[in-house]
Amino acid sequence: MNAINKNNNKRKIQKKQLNIALFTAPLFIISSFFCHSEDLISGTDLQDSPLSLSLTTSLAVTINNSIQHLTINQYGIKNTVMVNQAADMVNDINIIQNGMHNQANVVQSGANNTVNLLQQGDGNLVDVIQEGDTNIANIKQTGEQTFIVHQIGNEMLVNITQY
Questions:
Q1: Mean pLDDT in each 10-residue stretch from start to end of the chain (163 residues)?
Q2: What is the pTM of this model?
């Protein structure tokens, strides 16, 4: 009788091990589909993809011995950035987008202009135009906010936080 109980117990254990193996095997397959921003970028072209979860790039371009700085960090999907740095002087743009469907449009024509932008949440929109020299725009948005600023002139400062 003991031998029969031992055999039944072994079968129950083997059946549980098989059930666990059948349950955990798909988990191993699923975990192999994770990707990183380096996997999604080829060269310097940034492309939106339904698979994109985060994208980070930093670019410094030298034109006539002046450096244009551009740093973009995107976490989420369907975030867009349009940048036009038209001057041949030092300008800086730092953008962080964390969420979905955020949009930033920045135009700089002048010297020593700076844009620092943080968009968190979904559906934020920013348009910044800097025409002139030494203008600074520090912008923080959290969720479905819109901000448009045209800095036309010199040494203008904008600090905005929208919740």
A1: 59 54 41 37 50 62 72 90 82 94 94 96 96 96 94 96 92
A2: 0.65
